[in-house]
Design a protein that fits this description.
Length: 416
């Protein structure tokens, strides 16, 4: 069956997207609202996460318990998350429960109760998440990298800060929801087995007259290069490295994605083979592409012992630079199979597909078809990847370490 993206733009600015997957018995939606960390007041880091938690504690005629019981009765699997730009609500449900679930979530984003007597409970959950980072220094390391590389407001993290969480009161939550929970720049992406005309009618009925203030403009992003260290009493060192690459919006993105895949996709990848298996330097190492404010970065992580941290950084950088020696046919063939397998698996999940099309629309203003993506992947060659790497050598490096001793870039490897 030919893939078709269904779209409708409502007069209040809300964008509705749909992809019909009639072979499924489920439906799912991903609801992106412009209420991410970049819209928090500077002194209230963590407000977006706390507001997200509070928004799910009752709405309209439903108290917290009644709201959750109604969703459970409908068989809704639900998650929420915070990104730099968005508060995201994701739901998967039997197709017959779609309209009722949408009604509940429309009530939630438009008329959250935000009960004052539950602010402290929500704050304690946030503080617990923040404290949990102490037990997961790899996550903490990536958070520190984000804060260092991406200056405010872009570098804020979903967990926030201790000072920010402690300073938040109910009025802050109400103002944040009032200012940022609105239809303009919101995206509702639906995937699965549904009737498009019924979906459009349901969205018009529940969200068509939803309004609010315009999303405030954001300053340009200028990534910060160099190195930063966070002390952590441990015999382990966690290092996170970033360098510039093509963003998701770039026509050359799939070449960048393929090069990072050669480095880090699977146990046959170069980082796993060279840094972990051959040298035995790390217990974990990987790299991934990350796009923010139309700029791209490759983010790398390695966890090692303190006495081997310097060697680990050296080998990590050398392995990245080894792409200049070319990509083998076997490496490229394995990568293409992995990417195509991921596309096949996505077709079996309405939740995964709704998430993907929402993200594509935000970054690109359109949703590439699977055929388009497959064509991009099939067109990759060893020669084109080498040419792309040589024309876009890694630069603008940032390094963050968490451990007992700081690290510096090796001389002659990179000009930070």
């Amino acid at each position: 069956m030919k893939q078709q993206l269904l779209t409708q733009q409502f007069s209040n600015g809300l964008v509705l997207l749909g992809e019909h997957m009639p072979w499924l018995r489920s439906s799912a939606f991903t609801f992106l609202i412009p209420a991410g960390t970049c819209y928090e007041p500077p002194a209230l880091s963590g407000l977006s996460s706390l507001a997200c938690e509070m928004s799910q504690r009752g709405c309209g005629p439903y108290d917290s318990r009644a709201f959750l019981e109604e969703l459970d009765f409908l068989g809704v699997e639900r998650t929420s998350s915070i990104t730099t730009h968005h508060t995201a609500y994701s739901c998967a449900m039997p197709s017959s429960a779609f309209e009722r679930t949408l009604e509940l979530y429309a009530e939630m984003v438009r008329r959250p109760r935000l009960p004052e007597d539950q602010v402290e409970d929500a704050r304690q959950l946030g503080l617990q998440d923040l404290r949990a980072l102490e037990d997961e220094p790899s996550h903490r390391c990536f958070n520190e990298l984000k804060r260092f590389r991406f200056p405010p407001p872009y570098g804020r993290t979903a967990q926030g800060t201790l000072e920010g969480l402690q300073a938040i009161d109910i009025q802050d939550v109400r103002e944040f929801c009032g200012n940022n929970f609105h239809a303009a720049d919101s995206i509702l992406a639906v995937a699965g087995n549904f009737e498009w005309s019924a979906v459009c009618a349901a969205v018009e009925r529940t969200l068509g007259d939803w309004h609010g203030p315009a999303t405030p403009p954001l300053p340009p992003l200028v990534p910060q290069c160099g190195q930063h260290h966070t002390d952590h009493a441990s015999n382990q060192t966690h290092l996170a490295l970033a360098y510039a690459c093509d963003p998701y919006e770039s026509p050359d993105y799939y070449k960048t994605r393929a090069l990072v895949g050669i480095l880090s996709d699977g146990m046959s990848s170069r980082l796993f083979t060279e840094v972990r298996e051959k040298r035995g330097l790390v217990y974990s190492v990987f790299a991934t592409c990350f796009s923010l404010a139309r700029q791209g970065s490759v983010l790398c992580y390695a966890g090692t012992t303190t006495n081997r941290a310097e060697e680990t950084l050296q080998v990590l950088l050398e392995t990245i630079q080894s792409l200049a020696d070319g990509v083998s046919e076997d490496e490229l063939a394995r990568l293409k199979v992995r990417i195509k397998s991921a596309l096949v698996m996505e077709q079996e999940s309405s939740a995964a597909r709704s998430h993907q099309i929402a993200g594509d629309w935000f970054h690109l203003g359109r949703v590439p078809t699977r055929e388009e993506v497959l064509q991009e992947i099939d067109s990759l060659t060893c020669e084109s990847l080498l040419e792309h790497f040589m024309a876009h050598r890694p630069k603008s490096y940032s390094l963050v370490t968490v451990g007992s001793q700081p690290l510096e870039f090796p001389s002659g490897i990179v000009d930070a």
